Structures are given as structure tokens and as C-alpha cells.
Amino acid sequence: MSNRLPTAYQRRRHALVTAWRRMDEGPVLDSPLRSVADLVGPIVAQAGIGDRMKLEEVLGAWREIVGDFLFQHSRPDSIQRGVLMVRVLQPTVHHVLAMERPRILKRLQEKLKNSGIKDVRLKHG
User: Fold this and answer.
1) Are 26 and 74 found together in one domain?
2) pLDDT-based confidence at 49, cuts 50/70/90?
3) CA-to-CA distance for 28 and 26, rounded, in angstroms?
4) How many domains does the chain have?
């Protein structure tokens, strides 16, 4: 048997499984009935995947907001503290998106009211 400590991934996984099963509350049979909707919110928050879910919504709306050409040359990459990071492939596309940034931000906020996006930043890559 190895004396290795669990990795951060293994600890997070164990915590998520424990939270999902509600093992910290005692025997499962003694626990009150709950709906899945009541459990999902806290588990998503604990796992830290809320921003990733928001990013999926942004990806779905990105083509409509920026158009086909800009969509092909840029991709929303991440959301960190309300800032949408967009990866851009070409300097000319970066310039166009930089000029249109206020309009893009406004349309994102209108289309995705619950996304919490406060700013858009562009990066090459």
C-alpha cells in the first residue's frame, strides 16, 4: 500500500460525491426528501463550474452577436469575475472587436441577463 496523499482532483471528486450523496448528514434513510433542483445549485457552486455553464450560454450566443466572420476568428475562452475573455486569432479581428466592444458587451448583457458579464477583454492566441 502506498503512503501517497490524495491529489487535489481526488479530494474535489470525493467532496463532490459526498455532497451529492449527502453523506455528511447521516444515514440516507433518515434524510428528508429533496428535489434535484434543490441539490444542483449548491453542488454547482461548490464545484466551481458555474462560470463554465455561463460560458456555454455565451458560446451559444456568440455567433449571433458578432456575425459569422468574426465568429470564425474568435472564441470566448473563459469568464473570470464577470470578465469575458475572448481569444482572437488575427490582429485585424482584434482591432474590429476592440472597436465594437461596447456594442458586443451591451448585446451580451441584453441577451444573457443572468450571465453577470461586466466587461469583455481580448487576447491573442
Assistant:
1) no
2) low
3) 6
4) 2
pLDDT confidence of 52, banded at 50, 70, 90? low
Evaluate whether 115 touches 104 at the Cβ level (below 8 Å).
no
| Tens-digit pLDDT profile for residues 67-111 | 989 999 999 988 888 888 999 989 999 999 999 999 999 998 898
Q: Which residue has the cell 469575475?
A: 81
Same domain, 38 and 80: no
Q: Looking at the structure, do residues 83 and 35 belong to the same domain, yes or no?
A: no
Look up residue 8 and give its three cell numbers: 487535489
Domain residues for the domain of 117 are: 50-124
Residue 98 forms part of a structural domain: yes
3-state secondary structure of 74: strand
What does DSSP say about strands 74-80 and 83-88: parallel, antiparallel, or unpaired? antiparallel
Give the H/E segment covering residue 60: helix 50-66
